[in-house]
Amino acid sequence: MYCRKAKLKLPMKSILEEYKCGKVRLVTMLEESDDPVVNTVQPSIKTGRKWKVAEAIDEAKECPRSKEVIGQTQTDRKGLGSSSVK
Model pTM? Predict the structure, then answer.
């Protein structure tokens, strides 16, 4: 199904994206659990050497913070203050 030579060609990126989303979903579910036992025990999730779940979660949590610190920036010719803040 996920290959380059089959009649139905699905990109390998989509299966990789599903894998990463599943791992991130699992870790966040365990971290944000209401059960204190599950919340305190943090299992190590094996992902490989190129991609780490903890780094991906930290990067995703940092993105909105950096946008908040930077604030509203000029994106078009209109200038600052011409558009509403989202």
Answer: 0.61
